[in-house]
């Protein structure tokens, strides 16, 4: 009976080789380089495998106080978020105590994160939601976006369906992830073809706009008052616009048609096909 090998959650540090037996060439090369450096340091008498983790713990607590999360620290350093969390608290359910000693490499990475001025504590979630939806529309499953944003995968879905506000740090992290991933193919990050197809299908059913749509409306992705009309037919857009013009300004169909650059008969047909926007006023 063979033991199944777990899939590594990421390939950013040595754990994918040491804990998950990853054999990707770049990961094996990174591990071999680390081993060679370690052996050279041992031979030179300069190897310091473990040092006191107190400076890391103190720095992390300061980072958390200004809005960082273990997931965000993980994204910035490449250190697994569970390891980051263990520097400040134990995990009794997993049988793991708080980390008391660490390596100089981990300390350097974590202490390099600056204590920048805090972002707004809570902000409107519109832009964060739309960026997540846009990435999903090009094939990114929601569960795959969590590590890139720096939050738990379950929290990605929670932002879409329940959150009234999001942390400023989460909003900024989503912007960073969006800018990076929108031009990167999910399959290059290990996302399966089934996962890509499922994400695209769900986004299509939900009517989520892709990045290309938001490129055509600069500045609107964060505007809660902007109503995206992705995948609407021209006739439905005309019906909506005519409805707005007529109910807001009191214009008739002829004037509304002139403002929209169409014939009055086009508005008649648009209202017929989309009666929820029809306005009964003098022609």
Mean residue pLDDT: 83
Q: What shape does the CA trace take?
A: elongated
Secondary-structure element order, N to C: HHEHHHEHEHHHEHHHHHH
Radius of gyration: 26 Å
Q: What share of the residues lie within helices?
A: 40-55%
Task: Provide the number of structural domains.
Answer: 4
- The number of helical runs is 15
Distance between the termini: 80 Å
Number of strands: 4
| Main sheet properties | 2 strands, antiparallel
What portion of the residues fall into strands of 2 or more residues?
under 5%
Largest sheet, spatial ordering of strands: 1-2
Name the poorly predicted regions: none
Structural class of the helix and strand makeup? mainly alpha
Report on the structure:
The protein has 283 residues and is mainly alpha-helical. It has four domains: 1-47, no CATH class; 51-111; 122-215, no CATH class; 234-277. It contains 15 helices and four strands. It has helices at residues 15-18, 25-44, 54-65, 70-77, 81-86, 104-111, 126-137, 142-149, 153-161, 168-181, 193-206, 211-215, 234-249, 253-260, 264-273; strands at residues 51-52, 101-102, 122-123, 166-167. It has a two-stranded antiparallel sheet. Helix 7 runs parallel beside helix 10 (168-181). It is elongated.
